[in-house]
Amino acid sequence: MQEVYEFLKNCGTYYLATVEGDQPRVRPFGTVDIFEGKLYIQTGKVKEVSKQLQANPKAELCAFADGKWLRVAGKLIRDDRVEAKKHMLDNYPELQAMYSAEDDNTEVLYFEDATATFFSFTEEPKVIKF
């Protein structure tokens, strides 16, 4: 999981795919954190992505850097604990102008039953499950 985290941090931007009915939805994200041994992302509950994940928690992200790409597939589970939100926001102080660990909008989600696969054109895929 640490390797996945470091790759995503290095990329800066990754793309998260969700489903809305029968329509895939993809958008750029940039937050990633490890808290209590789980890989987290962050968004706002008022956003469509949050509504999509509550209706169907299955999601996949994709990132690319240095000739390699990463796909992480699994379920994203909401964690409403202030401690989890605070940990994320402490790592992204620039978000503290828009989000607070105590507000009703900040949402952090962790991957459950995740499969991360690293790909390149020159190496065999590497699979990490967490």
Automatic annotation (TrEMBL):
Stretches assigned to the Pyridoxamine 5'-phosphate oxidase N-terminal domain: 2-88
Stored Pfam families: PNPOx_N (PF01243)
Protein name: NimC/NimA family protein
Taxonomic source organism: Acetivibrio mesophilus
Lineage: Bacteria, Bacillati, Bacillota, Clostridia, Eubacteriales
